[in-house]
Amino acid sequence: MNYHWNWHIFFEPSPTGTGDYLDMLLSGLLLTIETALCAWIIALTSGSIVGVMRTLPSKAASWFGFAWVEFFRNMPLLVQLFIWFFVLPELLPPSWGLWMKQMPNAPFYTAAIGIGLFMSARVAEQTRAGINSLPRGQKLAATALGLTTAQTYRYVLLPMAFRIIMPPLTSEFLSTIKNTSVAITIGLIELTGAARAMQEFSFQVFEAFTGATVLYLLINIVVVIAMRFLERSLAVPGYITGK
Amino acid sequence: MFANFDFDVIRRSLGYLFFDGMTFTLTLTGLAALGGLIFGTLIALMRLSGLTVLGRVAGLYVDLMRSLPLVLVIFWFYFLVPYIGQWVTGSSRPIHVGAFASSLVTFTIFEAAYFSEIMRAGIQSISSGQPGAAQALGLTYGQTMRYVVLPQAFRNMLPVLLTQTIVLFQDTSLVYVLSIPDFLGAASKVAQRDGRLVEMYLFAAIIYFIVSCFASFGVRRLQARIAYVH
Questions:
Q1: B22-180 in CATH: which number?
Q2: B166 CB-contact burial (10 Å; exposed 0-12 / middle 13-18 / buried 19+)
């Protein structure tokens, strides 16, 4: 192979003037984590609400939940980001559109909201599956005790459902982190974007991508360990979910 | 809001969008799904082979692919494939690899990790009495897999495999980062040439939505039929 390896490239100053190439990758890592956390908050809240709506007896609520999930699940994430970033400002009243275009950090907000909504469809499906996996007796017993629907969900169904879906939610969170890389297309310099920039500035293709790969693996390991810990500390004794 | 919409730009570019763009997207999806299934099945067999080293290697491969974002993997292979080609053909310089071949290699290798997890679940869903019975009949390991286990595993997992293929269909849009004219890339090229981002991106979104909706509707019907047969 006639590729010129240079692993010291990480400690050479980058042309952005803010330290060396390693700093560049690390600031990308930070942005990846920030975007992923914001997106995850949006995905988890809206996804849980939509997932609960799909299990409610109300026809309108479950139809809304169904429409939400199908809408955000059947378009590629990249296309959704383009719609939020390029199309939405044009369809709004001109003054709003202008405000959106001039907003500082627009790629960050677009990515956080766009990825959040995209993932919310998946979280909703998991929440629904979790609630439906509970024995029917739980809901019936709660009703027999005189709990309202809201109370049934708050005190009986959701605490168990969320514990059950903890492992799939972990992988959805990992997907959220990975999906932030799609925001490179709207100009967000997250970890993949930083590696790409490093590759373009330094011509050290494989070192740059190896650096990003290692950092992604590290995030994955940290998240998996943290979630396993969380799962264990939330486990209800006597249930298999606590294993 | 839609007053200054130019629907003509869509009509004018329909041929390019579908004959070039959509053909690229669908061919890539189909071939990558097929390749991913073949390699994925091999990886699943490696993981279930009971040979420690083989299983460990396959497990590492799957974990590595599943922890990396597809965009990064696309970049990796875009630069790596010419060197792999050089190594395979033994030429003196990195060979030139076209956009399609490069994306096909990327998606096959990436999707193999995901398909292998599905096939592993499928193989494990076959009760252990069946390979036992096959062995008692004198079938070799290869024959057991070929005639007894894999056909059933594949049939049981068909809905999941097809759902993963729909995800793959959507994911192929990410070749956009290499400026390859797949369906979205073609739409984006027209959009930027004519300054018609709104029309082209909305149109692309609608087409992706319709195709995915129909496909997942089909999968759901198939699932219902399979469940009924059981």
A1: 1.10.3720.10
A2: buried
